[in-house]
Design goal:
- This protein has 647 residues and is of the alpha+beta class.
- The chain is built from twelve helices and 18 strands.
- The strands form four sheets. It has an eight-stranded antiparallel β-sheet with strand order 13-12-15-16-18-10-11-14, covered by helices on one side.
- It is elongated.
- The model is unreliable at 8-17, 208-217 and 309-330 (pLDDT under 50).
Length: 647
C-alpha cells in the first residue's frame, strides 16, 4: 500500500523587491554611505578651522553659516525619513534599510559636530552659571529639542543595528520593533519641528534694539550687547579707560579678542565683563557665538588713544569733532552786536556740551591801583566765580574757562560780569564795582534752551543738538561701512548698513523704519527719534528765537543760520534716505557700489556741510551749512556782547 505524501502549504513567495541584494552590492552601498559621512565630518571640521562656521548665514537671519547649514540638513533629514517610510510602506525593504541607515548615521554627525557644540556653549554653559535661565524660551525650547532628539537618535541607532546585524543578546531581539520604528519616526518629526522652533527663537524673532548710547562715567565706558550687536561697533577711548560690556539680550554672548588674548567666557543676560586698557592700539573682538574674527557678524573695535586725546573718548554728551577744511566762519558775528560792545562771550564744548566759556574783548582798561579783575557767571544758579581776568598791555582780553565738573554752563546762567576787586581781597563774594557785563534776553533765551540744555523731544531729555549730532555722525559711519562691505563682496552687510542709515534718518515714526534687510532684527543705533525729527525740532526753536520780542540782532542772525543749516540737513537727509532705500534693494555688488559711494558722499555733506561757492568757507546759509554748522550757530545764539559798565 502506497502512501501519498502529505501536501504542505506552499512557501510564501518573496516579492522580487524584497530579495536582499548581493553581498557585493551591500558592501559598495555601505562604503558609499561611509564616504558621505566622512566627507560631511571633514567639511564641518574644515568650516570651523577656517572661520567659515561663524560667517553670516545665507537665509538672512541672525544665524551663522553653520547654523543655516544645520537647519537645512534637518529639513532634508525630515524629507529623507519620510521617503524611508514610503519605501517601507510599499515593500521596498532593502531600499528602506539603506535609507534609514544613512540618515540615522548622518544625524549623528549633525548632533556631534554641530548641535552638541552649539548647545553646550549657548545653553549648558549658561545653565551651569544660572539654572533659573531654563525658564527662558531660548533655553527651555533648545533643551526640549536636545532631549527629544537625543532619545530619538538612540532609538534609531538601535533599529539600524537591528536591521543590519544579528544581535547576540536575546533580550535585545524585541518583537515589537515595527512599532518602535513608528515611534522613532514620530520622534524624528517632533525633533525637526522643535529644531525649526529653536532656530526661529534664536535667530528670527524680531526685537527692537534696546542698547543705550555709550556713556563714560568715572573712567568707564559702557558698551551694551543688544540685539546681537555691540552698540556701537567702533569707539575710541583714552589710555587707562575701563570698558564694560553688558549683555542685554536673552541669548548668551562673549567678548573674545581676535587674537585670543582675552575671553569673557559666557555672559548671560544682565551679566557684564570689564577690560582696562593700559596700552595704546586697536583691539578687535567678537562674540564667539554670533560673530567671528575680522569684524564678521557680532564684532567690534576699540581704539585706545593717548591721554592727551581725551576728546576722542565717548561721553554722555560728546563734543563735536574738529570740522575739516573748509571750515565754518569762526565765532559769533561781532558785526551784529550793538556798537557799544567791546567783545563777546561764547559757549564751547571741551569735555561735554557747553562746558567752556571764551571771553574776547578789546580796549579794556586794567586797574592801576593794585586792584584785580574777577570774572563771574551770573543767573538763577549764580554768581559763579570763574577766576581772575588778565588784560594784556594793549588792553586785550582772551580768557577761557573750562568747568572742572564738565557742567553745561548755559543751564542756570544768563549773564556775566567782570568786577573790580580791591587789593588783598579775601571776600568770596563779588564787590559792587563792575567793569564789564553782558546778558541773554530771557524770552529769546528760553526759546533756545531746548536746543542747548534739554528737551522732552529726546527720550532721555537731552539737548536737541546732542542726538542730532550723534545721528548725523552715525549715518556717515554706516554709509562708510556699506562701501567697505561692497569692497569685501558682502552684499548682505551692504543691505544691513543701509537699514541702519534709514532708521537713523527717519526714526520710529518714519514710513520705512523697520527690519528692511529682513534679518529678523530692527536695528536702530539711535534713540528712535530720527535725525530729520531732531532737525525739525531745532528749526522750531530757532523760529521761536526769531519771533521773540527781546531777541537781539545777534541772536536773530545766528537763529537764522541754525535754521538754514538744519534745513540743509533735512534736504540732504531726505535724499540720503532715498539712496539708502535703493541700496537696501540692490540686486548685485555692481549696482550697490554706485549707490553706496553716492550715499557716503552725501552723508559726509550732511555732517560737515559743503563749500558750494568755492570760497574756502562753509557758510551758514542754504546749500552750504550742515550739522556741524547748525551745532556751532545754535551755541552762538546765546553768545553775549561785552559791554562796559557806565559809572
Amino acid at each position: 500500500m502506497s502512501t501519498q505524501p502529505v501536501p504542505t502549504a506552499p512557501r510564501e513567495q518573496r516579492k522580487p523587491e524584497d530579495v536582499p541584494p548581493p553581498r557585493a552590492v551591500r558592501i559598495v552601498v555601505g562604503l558609499f554611505i561611509a564616504a558621505l559621512i566622512v566627507v560631511a565630518i571633514a567639511a564641518i571640521v574644515l568650516a570651523r578651522n577656517q572661520g567659515v562656521a561663524n560667517a553670516n548665514g545665507f537665509y538672512g537671519t541672525r544665524a551663522k553659516f553653520l547654523s543655516d547649514v544645520n537647519i537645512t540638513l534637518e529639513i532634508l533629514l525630515f524629507i529623507g525619513l519620510s521617503v524611508g517610510f514610503f519605501l517601507a510602506h510599499t515593500g521596498r525593504i532593502s531600499a528602506h534599510q539603506y535609507n534609514q541607515t544613512f540618515w540615522t548615521l548622518f544625524n549623528i554627525v549633525l548632533i556631534e559636530f554641530i548641535m552638541v557644540v552649539s548647545f553646550s556653549q549657548q545653553v549648558l554653559a549658561v545653565l551651569q552659571q544660572s539654572p533659573g535661565s531654563i525658564t527662558r524660551p531660548f533655553h527651555w525650547l533648545s533643551t526640549l529639542h536636545a532631549t527629544v532628539g537625543g532619545l530619538t537618535e538612540i532609538s534609531a541607532v538601535f533599529l539600524v543595528i537591528r536591521m543590519n546585524f544579528r544581535l547576540p543578546w536575546k533580550f535585545l531581539r524585541i518583537k515589537w520593533w515595527k512599532t518602535l520604528m513608528q515611534i522613532t519616526l514620530g520622534g524624528f518629526y517632533a525633533a525637526v519641528v522643535l529644531g525649526l522652533s529653536t532656530y526661529f527663537v534664536w535667530y528670527i524673532v524680531p526685537t527692537e534694539a534696546s542698547g543705550s548710547p555709550v556713556a563714560q562715567v568715572q573712567g568707564t565706558t559702557v558698551i551694551p550687547m543688544s540685539n546681537f550687536a555691540f552698540v556701537p561697533f567702533e569707539i575710541s577711548v583714552p589710555l587707562g579707560t575701563t570698558v564694560e560690556w553688558i549683555n542685554q539680550d536673552d541669548a548668551p554672548h562673549t567678548v573674545t579678542y581676535d587674537n585670543g588674548s582675552v575671553d569673557s567666557k559666557v555672559l548671560n543676560k544682565g551679566e557684564s565683563f570689564k577690560v582696562t586698557y593700559n596700552q595704546i592700539g586697536d583691539f578687535k573682538y567678537y562674540c564667539a557665538f554670533h560673530g567671528s574674527p575680522g569684524t564678521q557678524g557680532m564684532s567690534g573695535i576699540i581704539h585706545v588713544v593717548s591721554a592727551q586725546q581725551v576728546a576722542a573718548a565717548p561721553t554722555a554728551e560728546l563734543p563735536p569733532t574738529a570740522t575739516p577744511a573748509p571750515t565754518p566762519a569762526p565765532g559769533p558775528l561781532v558785526s551784529s552786536l550793538p556798537p557799544t560792545t567791546v567783545g563777546f562771550l561764547e559757549f564751547r564744548d571741551n569735555r561735554a556740551l557747553n562746558d567752556e566759556l571764551l571771553l574776547v574783548a578789546s580796549g579794556v582798561a586794567a586797574p592801576t591801583d593794585g586792584s584785580t579783575l574777577a570774572f563771574w557767571l551770573n543767573g538763577p544758579n549764580g554768581p559763579k566765580s570763574l577766576g581772575p581776568l588778565q588784560v594784556d598791555a594793549n588792553g586785550n582780553v582772551n580768557h577761557s574757562f573750562i568747568d572742572p565738573l564738565a557742567s553745561n554752563l548755559v543751564d542756570g546762567f544768563d549773564s556775566f560780569f567782570v568786577s573790580i576787586e580791591p587789593p588783598g581781597d579775601t571776600d568770596p563774594a563779588p564787590s559792587g564795582k563792575r567793569l564789564l557785563e553782558g546778558y541773554v534776553p530771557p524770552v529769546a533765551r528760553s526759546a533756545v534752551l531746548p536746543v542747548l540744555v534739554g528737551s522732552p523731544v529726546s527720550p532721555d531729555g537731552k539737548a536737541l543738538i546732542v542726538p542730532f549730532r550723534f545721528d548725523a555722525e552715525d549715518i556717515v559711519r554706516h554709509a562708510g561701512s556699506s562701501v567697505d562691505a561692497v569692497n569685501s563682496g558682502d552684499l548682505r552687510s551692504v543691505t544691513r548698513h543701509a537699514e541702519h542709515v534709514v532708521n537713523l534718518i527717519e526714526g520710529k515714526s518714519g514710513p520705512n523704519y523697520g527690519d528692511l534687510d529682513k534679518n529678523g532684527t530692527v536695528f536702530d543705533p539711535s534713540d528712535g527719534v530720527g535725525m530729520l525729527a531732531y532737525a525739525r525740532a531745532i528749526q522750531d526753536q530757532a523760529g521761536a528765537v526769531l519771533a521773540a520780542a527781546d531777541a537781539t540782532d545777534s541772536m536773530k542772525t545766528h537763529a537764522r543760520h541754525t535754521f538754514d543749516s538744519a534745513q540743509n540737513v533735512i534736504d540732504w537727509g531726505t535724499q540720503a534716505d532715498e539712496l539708502a532705500l535703493k541700496l537696501n534693494s540692490a540686486k548685485d555688488l555692481g549696482e550697490a557700489r554706485t549707490i553706496a559711494e553716492q550715499l557716503e558722499k552725501l552723508t559726509i555733506q550732511i555732517r560737515d556741510g559743503v563749500d558750494a561757492n568755492g570760497n574756502g568757507i562753509i557758510e551758514p546759509v542754504k546749500g552750504e551749512g550742515g550739522m556741524r554748522t547748525a551745532y556751532l550757530h545754535a551755541q552762538y545764539i546765546v553768545a553775549m556782547g561785552v559791554v562796559p559798565v557806565q559809572e
